[in-house]
Every structure is written in structure tokens, then in C-alpha cells.
């Protein structure tokens, strides 16, 4: 026993554990057996409207009276159900907008954007070919020296003249733009330590923000909070995965919208 007392750190420090336990129990004796709530237990839905709804449904099952605890329980259950649906829809929306280009776990099997760009390029080349054919036809019509007063020939000559004027105007506009850009010179980027940025950082410092972070990150954090946008397609996908809702009338109405 003497050896245990020597090895006991508490006894060597002069602390009596029995006295300390008695003090702790005496100090918190008024809290023992009580339930502490951080906020009032308020129902999520309107009690009166929910009671009427439950009674209307319960008439088919001969339910004429309803206890207030049942109303509160159904209200809390509805709240938890909506919270669960919102969490699932949020995960679906985040997965829809997330990109996996930099991940090694994903391999692109078909690039839809590249396919669309290829089709757009084909359409552009086809349109360019037709424009070249029409241009050559108009130029041939403009160079022809037939004396016959053919209305169709006159129309083609007028159209060729308008096309040449339009091309000349485009060339002149392009040359004017290049001349203006050459006169202005290369565009200079504004340094980060400019007076505007400095004053903005000083204002942020005055509001209690540390000066070590950059102005752009602070502005992005303050003015552009991260928001998850949920659309109807996400909600429909969530309802299709739910066992209780994948055959419901609500899903069919959502699909018709």
C-alpha cells in the first residue's frame, strides 16, 4: 500500500481525489436529473392546419380525436423528411456541376463537346463553300458583257456590286481597327498595389479583416458565397430514386412540367 501511494501521482502532488469528487458533486448537484435544452421545441408546421389535414385523412379510418403530441410528432417527422430530401438533392446538384477532368479515376469515353464542335465546323465549312460558289457566280455575272437586257442578269449584277461594296467596307473597318490598336499600344495590367486596391484593403482592414490575405480572395469570399443551385431535374432524379416517390402522382406531375 505504501508503494502504491508513492507511485500515485495525485497523492504525490497533494491532491485528495475523494475530496475533489465530493466538491464536484456538491457544485453541480442542482443540475443532476434535469434536462437542458438549447432552444424551445417549436413545431415545424402550423398546428391548426396540420390538425385539420390529419383529421380529414383520418375520417376514412374512423379517427375523430387527435392528441397534440401526435401533431407535434408528425410535424417533426415532416421536418426531418424535408431535411433528408434537401440533403439528397444538394448532393445530386453538386455532382451534376462537378468536373472530373483532372482525376485519374475517370476516363472520357465520348466527348460530346468535341463532337458538337466537329459538327459545327462541318456546317461552317459547308456554308463557306456555298458562299464561295455564290460569290463566283455573282462575279461571273458582273464581268459578263452581254447586251441583252435580262432582268435576272441585272439583279445578279446589282447583288455583285453590293457584295463588293460590303467586302470593301469590311476591309476598311479591319484596317481602321488595327490602326487604332497600334496607336493605343499594348494593354497594361493594373498592379495590385494601386491606390484603388490599397484603399479597398484598408477598408477591409478597418472592418477587422487580416491584411495577410489578398484583396481578390477577400472580395470573392465576401461578395460571392458558394451557392448550390438546384433545378427541377435534380428533384425529379431524387424522386426517381426514392422508393416511396418513384411511383407517386407528384413525380408524374413534375415530369409533365
From TrEMBL:
<dbReference type="InterPro" id="IPR009072">
    <property type="entry name" value="Histone-fold"/>
</dbReference>
<dbReference type="GO" id="GO:0005669">
    <property type="term" value="C:transcription factor TFIID complex"/>
</dbReference>
<dbReference type="GO" id="GO:0006367">
    <property type="term" value="P:transcription initiation at RNA polymerase II promoter"/>
</dbReference>
<keyword id="KW-0539">Nucleus</keyword>
<feature type="domain" description="Transcription initiation factor TFIID component TAF4 C-terminal">
    <location>
        <begin position="6"/>
        <end position="254"/>
    </location>
</feature>
<keyword id="KW-0805">Transcription regulation</keyword>
<dbReference type="GO" id="GO:0003677">
    <property type="term" value="F:DNA binding"/>
</dbReference>
<protein>
    <submittedName>
        <fullName>TAF4B factor</fullName>
    </submittedName>
</protein>
<dbReference type="GO" id="GO:0016251">
    <property type="term" value="F:RNA polymerase II general transcription initiation factor activity"/>
</dbReference>
<comment type="similarity">
    <text>Belongs to the TAF4 family.</text>
</comment>
<keyword id="KW-0175">Coiled coil</keyword>
<dbReference type="InterPro" id="IPR007900">
    <property type="entry name" value="TAF4_C"/>
</dbReference>
<keyword id="KW-0804">Transcription</keyword>
<dbReference type="GO" id="GO:0046982">
    <property type="term" value="F:protein heterodimerization activity"/>
</dbReference>
<dbReference type="Pfam" id="PF05236">
    <property type="entry name" value="TAF4"/>
</dbReference>
<feature type="coiled-coil region">
    <location>
        <begin position="115"/>
        <end position="176"/>
    </location>
</feature>
<dbReference type="InterPro" id="IPR045144">
    <property type="entry name" value="TAF4"/>
</dbReference>
Amino acid at each position: 500500500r505504501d508503494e502504491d501511494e508513492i507511485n500515485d501521482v495525485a497523492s504525490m502532488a497533494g491532491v485528495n481525489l475523494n475530496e475533489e469528487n465530493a466538491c464536484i458533486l456538491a457544485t453541480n448537484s442542482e443540475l443532476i436529473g434535469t434536462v437542458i435544452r438549447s432552444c424551445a421545441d417549436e413545431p415545424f408546421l402550423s398546428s391548426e392546419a396540420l390538425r385539420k389535414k390529419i383529421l380529414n385523412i383520418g375520417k376514412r379510418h374512423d379517427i375523430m380525436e387527435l392528441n397534440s403530441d401526435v401533431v407535434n410528432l408528425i410535424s417533426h417527422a415532416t421536418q426531418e423528411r424535408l431535411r433528408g430530401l434537401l440533403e439528397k438533392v444538394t448532393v445530386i446538384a453538386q455532382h451534376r456541376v462537378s468536373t472530373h477532368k483532372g482525376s485519374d479515376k475517370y476516363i472520357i469515353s465520348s466527348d460530346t463537346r468535341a463532337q458538337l464542335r466537329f459538327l459545327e465546323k462541318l456546317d461552317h465549312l459547308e456554308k463557306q463553300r456555298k458562299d464561295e460558289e455564290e460569290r463566283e457566280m455573282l462575279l461571273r455575272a458582273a464581268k459578263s458583257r452581254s447586251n441583252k437586257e435580262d432582268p435576272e442578269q441585272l439583279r445578279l449584277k446589282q447583288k455583285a456590286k453590293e457584295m463588293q461594296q460590303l467586302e470593301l467596307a469590311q476591309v476598311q473597318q479591319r484596317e481602321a481597327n488595327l490602326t487604332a490598336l497600334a496607336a493605343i499600344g499594348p494593354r497594361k495590367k493594373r498592379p495590385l498595389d494601386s491606390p484603388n486596391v490599397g484603399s479597398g484593403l484598408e477598408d477591409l482592414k478597418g472592418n477587422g479583416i487580416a491584411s495577410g490575405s489578398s484583396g481578390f480572395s477577400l472580395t470573392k469570399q465576401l461578395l460571392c458565397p458558394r451557392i448550390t443551385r438546384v433545378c427541377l431535374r435534380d428533384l425529379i432524379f431524387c424522386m426517381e430514386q426514392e422508393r416511396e416517390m418513384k411511383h407517386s402522382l407528384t413525380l408524374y406531375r413534375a415530369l409533365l412540367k
